[in-house]
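FAQ

Q: What does a record look like?
A: Structure on top, sequence underneath. For example:
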């Protein structure tokens, strides 16, 4: 059993041990990791650290005590809505991450459905097979059925609006589209999903946890990103992570709503206990002030021009990766437009190749359907494309030649 030491140690000694313990972790600072960390370089990392530290002790739970944090959160939400075509009256809140944002969107849709007199029995959410598992997690918490619908059969790896519409019934709380989905990096046909949702009278949520702070700038750079946000009239809510391609400190995400009336079903408000009345907008009580201040700091430091530069760099890196893996005989899954990509080889199982690339020091990921290698690229990866492709080629040769090592478990966890 681990026990607390009777006497504390000097901080320099403790700090040295912490650094030593991290020596075996994934080497994300060197660009060797293509999941979990979004590396925009040391300058932005310094902004994250300092901006977080300035409000590290403050608590977003208390807007009256810390109006500075409340104003920064309001401005972060405003910046997000301005990028995502939020109409007049749109609003939202910051959360701790994508799972938190998705959970709160589902809770809000559930309570809105109750207010509209929808049945409480058989409540369900309809989404594509590729939608993030955070919806299942939220559904488990709220005892809501998840109806996963197969993707289109045309090789696009997009959601199938017609099939999703067929899965909707009178107790459906929400339909979900992804922009992009995590497994393949593909943007679902949100406008078509919007037409189905409007016809069925169902709440449409867009999970833009990955793309919310990427796709607008990619579009500014000339990437033909289709309509995916509040530009589509049927979109009721969105989830968009700041600590992914917003390059903000963890954990910071946004959950956004088309109107105050929709948003009003999210907060928890209670006075019937022995303490003071309390109202919280999201699942959390205490809300780390540093996550709010760091987001505000990074967004204001980068500005539109900074984000355009970084996202343009990521798109260019993805294109270089696509060209490189194709030269090795891999096939790209679908048509990715942003920073995510998945690719498979017709003659080598992706999971075996993953084991070999992992042994060469790369911590990336895999996709199960279809079995593919998976990359979530950051600006730092522009420096390591050639090194990755060289190790990928060696890994492929080892698998094809029957000289690969023992298997390595690949998990998104």
């Amino acid at each position: 059993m681990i026990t607390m030491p009777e006497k504390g140690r000097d901080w320099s000694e403790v700090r040295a041990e912490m650094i030593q313990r991290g020596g075996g972790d994934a080497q994300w600072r060197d660009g060797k990791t293509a999941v979990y960390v979004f590396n925009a370089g040391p300058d932005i990392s310094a902004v994250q650290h300092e901006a977080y530290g300035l409000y590290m002790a403050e608590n977003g739970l208390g807007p009256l005590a810390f109006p500075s944090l409340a104003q920064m959160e309001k401005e972060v939400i405003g910046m997000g809505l301005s990028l995502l075509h939020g109409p007049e009256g749109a609003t939202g809140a910051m959360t701790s991450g994508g799972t938190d944002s998705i959970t709160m969107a589902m809770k809000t849709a559930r309570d809105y459905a109750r207010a509209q007199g929808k049945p409480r029995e058989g409540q369900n959410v309809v989404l594509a097979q590729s939608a993030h598992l955070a919806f299942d997690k939220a559904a488990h918490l709220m005892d809501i059925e998840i109806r996963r619908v197969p993707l289109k059969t045309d090789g696009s790896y997009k959601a199938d609006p017609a099939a999703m519409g067929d899965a909707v019934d009178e107790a459906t709380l929400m339909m979900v589209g992804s922009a992009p989905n995590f497994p393949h990096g593909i943007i679902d046909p949100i406008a078509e999903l919007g037409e189905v949702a409007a016809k069925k009278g169902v709440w449409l949520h867009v999970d833009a946890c990955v793309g919310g702070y990427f796709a607008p700038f990619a579009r500014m750079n000339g990437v033909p990103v289709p309509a995916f946000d509040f530009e589509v009239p049927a979109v009721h809510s969105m989830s968009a992570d700041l600590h992914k391609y917003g390059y903000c400190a963890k954990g910071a995400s946004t959950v956004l709503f088309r109107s105050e009336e929709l948003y009003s079903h999210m907060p928890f408000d209670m006075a019937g206990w022995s303490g003071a009345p309390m109202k919280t907008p999201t699942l959390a009580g205490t809300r780390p002030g540093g996550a709010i201040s760091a987001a505000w700091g990074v967004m204001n430091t980068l500005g539109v021009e900074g984000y355009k530069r970084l996202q343009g760099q990521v798109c260019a890196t993805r294109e270089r990766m696509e060209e490189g893996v194709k030269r090795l005989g891999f096939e790209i899954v679908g048509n990715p437009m942003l920073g995510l990509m998945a690719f498979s080889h017709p003659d080598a199982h992706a999971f075996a190749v993953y084991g070999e690339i992992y042994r060469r020091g790369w911590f990336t990921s895999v996709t199960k359907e279809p079995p593919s290698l998976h990359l979530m690229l950051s600006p730092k990866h522009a420096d390591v494309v050639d090194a990755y492709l060289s190790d990928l080629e060696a890994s492929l040769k080892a698998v094809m030649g029957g000289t690969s090592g023992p298997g390595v478990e690949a998990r998104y966890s």
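Q: Is there anything notable about this one?
A: The first strand starts at residue 91 and ends at 95.
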